[in-house]
Design brief:
about 110 residues; alpha+beta; Arc Repressor Mutant, subunit A; 5 helices; elongated
């Protein structure tokens, strides 16, 4: 059976990397040029650009050229989708655990 990645799968994959999570954390403070984003990381700019490409391809960030710099910013909609999925799962598991508690309390 072929595996087809959904946008949500791609977003979680992108966020599985600590470098990309750090980039997202920095972008949560506001949009910045790539050169500023890359400063704290000990890697060549082409390697860092690959991380940005993954984040952009899954829709977590967007970038645009302004003069001689490329600026990045977060795309809130993709984060909202991930948060909604996690909240749905949290509610589902909370209900299951509540039913288990009721069942276990009845067994004593």
């Amino acid at each position: 059976m072929p595996y087809h990645s959904t946008p949500l799968d791609l977003a979680f994959h992108a966020l599985s990397d600590p470098t990309r999570r750090a980039v997202v954390s920095r972008l949560a403070e506001g949009e910045v040029p790539v050169s500023v984003l890359a400063e704290p990381f000990d890697m060549a700019l082409p390697s860092f650009a690959q991380h940005l490409k993954v984040l952009e391809e899954c829709g977590l960030i967007t970038s645009e050229k302004r003069g001689r710099s490329r600026w990045c910013r977060l795309v809130q909609a993709r984060f909202d989708e991930a948060a909604n999925w996690m909240e749905t799962e949290r509610r589902s598991w909370a209900m299951r655990l509540e039913r288990l508690d009721v069942y276990l309390d009845g067994e004593e």
